[in-house]
């Protein structure tokens, strides 16, 4: 099982890199568009639409990292008051809820992607097709489904300790 977790760690680092790369592109695009708008009176065409789609992709790819690492914000008022056995039960239940939400989000995003593709939805200025950007966002949600399921399996097979202390993802 250790080889499997090592593979998942590397995969999640790659997914994290994808999210960071998307954020870097958004930052560069907005910076140069603002420079062009204020100094040259000519912003980069479609910079708003492209940056919002890439920001959505970054959020979804980051969500994939969160699904595996379990390093999201939690309120552990109940979990801290119970025994380690019940903490594990709470963790498994929370991961099941997250997995159900992620599957639902992937299903709804696929519907949105299909709609954009079938209707040839495009941006306003350059008439760029929207579906490739939505496909990138949807791929991030699909990656989140896999990483959330992987953490759920690790929790169910006792590969992750109480409150996630055996997951050395970023330490």
Describe the structure in your own words.
This protein is mostly helical. 71% of the residues lie in helices and 0% in strands. It has helices spanning 2-39, 47-69, 84-118, 131-156. The model is unreliable at 161-171 (pLDDT under 50).
Q: Which properties best describe this structure?
A:
171 residues; mainly alpha; 4 helices; disordered C terminus
Q: N-to-C SSE series?
A: HHHH
Q: What distance separates the N and C termini?
A: 20 Å
Q: Largest sheet at a glance?
A: none
Range of strand content: under 5%
Q: Which structural class do the helices and strands define? A: mainly alpha
| Contiguous uncertain segments of 5+ residues | 161-171
Strand element count: 0
Measured as a percent range, the helix fraction is over 70%
Mean pLDDT, all residues: 83
Number of helices: 4
Q: How large, in whole angstroms, is the Cα Rg?
A: 19 Å
Shape: elongated
């Amino acid at each position: 099982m250790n080889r499997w977790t090592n593979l998942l760690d590397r995969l999640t680092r790659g997914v994290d890199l994808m999210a960071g790369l998307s954020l870097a592109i958004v930052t560069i695009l907005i910076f140069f568009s603002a420079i062009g708008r204020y100094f040259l009176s000519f912003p980069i065409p479609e910079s708003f639409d492209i940056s919002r789609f890439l920001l959505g992709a970054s959020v979804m790819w980051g969500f994939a990292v969160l699904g595996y690492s379990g390093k999201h914000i939690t309120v552990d008022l109940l979990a801290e008051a119970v025994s380690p056995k019940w903490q594990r039960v709470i963790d498994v239940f929370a991961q099941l809820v997250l997995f159900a939400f992620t599957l639902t989000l992937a299903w709804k995003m696929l519907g949105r992607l299909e709609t954009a593709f079938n209707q040839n939805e495009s941006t306003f200025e350059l008439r760029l097709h929207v579906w490739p950007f939505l496909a990138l966002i949807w791929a991030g949600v699909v990656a989140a489904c896999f990483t959330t399921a992987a953490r759920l399996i690790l929790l169910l097979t006792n590969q992750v300790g109480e409150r996630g202390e055996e997951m050395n993802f970023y330490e």
